[in-house]
Amino acid sequence: MAKGTIPTIFIDGEAGTTGLGIRQRLEALPGVALRSIDPERRKNPEAKRALMAEVDLVVLCLPDAAAKESAAMAASLGADAPKLLDASTAHRVDPDWVYGVPELAPGQGDRIAAAPRVANPGCYPTGGILLLRPLVEAGLLPSDYPVTVNAVSGYSGGGKAMIETFEEGEHPAFELYGLALEHKHVPELQAYSKLSRRPIFVPSVGAFRQGMLVSVPLHLGLLAGNASPEALHEALAAYYAGSDFVSVLPPTTDGKLEPEALNNTNKLELRVYGNDARGQAVLVARLDNLGKGASGAAVQNIGLMLGLGEAVRAAA
Ligand SMILES: NC(=O)C1=CN([C@@H]2O[C@H](COP(=O)(O)OP(=O)(O)OC[C@H]3O[C@@H](n4cnc5c(N)ncnc54)[C@H](OP(=O)(O)O)[C@@H]3O)[C@@H](O)[C@H]2O)C=CC1
Ligand SMILES: CC(=O)N[C@@H](CCC(=O)OP(=O)(O)O)C(=O)O
């Protein structure tokens, strides 16, 4: 139930990369009003608390520690507490929060719509989970399969600090990272893909602003019943039939894929590349790390949480 005539939203951290992207998308959306704090007071706890009590929904676009503080502040408002959507990593595997991937499973969109607290997903896990979960659910990919997820992101994924180092020419043009195998996205990737064995995750970042590819190599002989690439494709296509934003495409014929084609959209594409003779396949997800990987996904969740789903679909 809206506190005013139309739902109101406060973006805590609206000057950052994700906050700005959400703001721009919401400004183009009819039926919501944005509320802000004077920029000089944007980190002031009293100013935040007062605004939180007035709005219907707060979006947290903050580093993890600040997101935890803001979430506690909102909870302390009791009956005046707004709904929360957290873009940080802080609450993604917290059982008191609903994971904000509407395509995760049947009924997930309804769970997001009804939830007081929703955790927006990480950009890389969005691609990995949407590739893996249907195959585990279908019994094609054993849950203890030794999964490796390789990925490349545009440099905006690292927020304001990384954007600056790339645009000042102070960052290598390409870099593997996360090689300590403790990347913050692994827990959500494992939990929501329903994998019993911790996946190996090897992210990388390149000299392009935005766009992302997430890929998972598979040995067909280790899948249930030596599943074929066609069976993997069919399982994914059936899972996302009728989805507004996720599509399952035949692989391109030249065996190449670039990461930027979906930039500035909330779309995500899945493909299965296979070679029966070699007994191998590679699953690939393409998305915009700032779109379906962050701000686009946030606006999709806001649409569900505030009953604006139709407007979000129309604007996408
Ligand atoms: N970039 C991406 O692709 C994605 C990022 N995310 C997540 O979103 C969150 C924000 O990331 P991102 O936008 O990239 O980061 P940025 O560094 O671009 O922005 C963070 C913003 O938060 C502000 N901030 C920090 N502390 C406070 C506070 N206590 N109160 C109010 N504002 C504060 C910062 O201000 P100042 O600079 O002045 O400190 C900055 O404007 C992170 O948790 C990140 O993990 C999620 C999905 C994708
Ligand atoms: C290139 C780069 O540095 N990417 C970020 C992830 C960006 C992202 O979407 O992660 P969150 O949603 O969890 O913030 C990283 O690997 O930490």
Automatic annotation (TrEMBL):
Its EC number is 1.2.1.38. It catalyses: N-acetyl-L-glutamate 5-semialdehyde + phosphate + NADP(+) = N-acetyl-L-glutamyl 5-phosphate + NADPH + H(+). One of its GO terms (cellular component) is cytoplasm. Pathway: Amino-acid biosynthesis; L-arginine biosynthesis; N(2)-acetyl-L-ornithine from L-glutamate: step 3/4. It holds the Pfam family Semialdhyde_dh. The active site is at C123. It is an enzyme of class 1 (oxidoreductase). One of its GO terms (molecular function) is NAD binding. It comes from the Bacteria. SUPFAM superfamilies: Glyceraldehyde-3-phosphate dehydrogenase-like, C-terminal domain (SSF55347), NAD(P)-binding Rossmann-fold domains (SSF51735). Residues 8-112 form the Semialdehyde dehydrogenase NAD-binding domain. Its main location: cytoplasm. InterPro entries: AGPR (IPR050085), AGPR_AS (IPR023013), AGPR_dimerisation_dom (IPR058924), AGPR_type-2 (IPR010136), NAD(P)-bd_dom_sf (IPR036291), Semialdehyde_DH_NAD-bd (IPR000534). It is found in: Cytoplasm. GO terms for biological process: L-arginine biosynthetic process. Keywords: Amino-acid biosynthesis, Arginine biosynthesis, Cytoplasm, NADP, Oxidoreductase. Belongs to the NAGSA dehydrogenase family. Type 2 subfamily. Catalyzes the NADPH-dependent reduction of N-acetyl-5-glutamyl phosphate to yield N-acetyl-L-glutamate 5-semialdehyde. This is N-acetyl-gamma-glutamyl-phosphate reductase. The gene is argC.
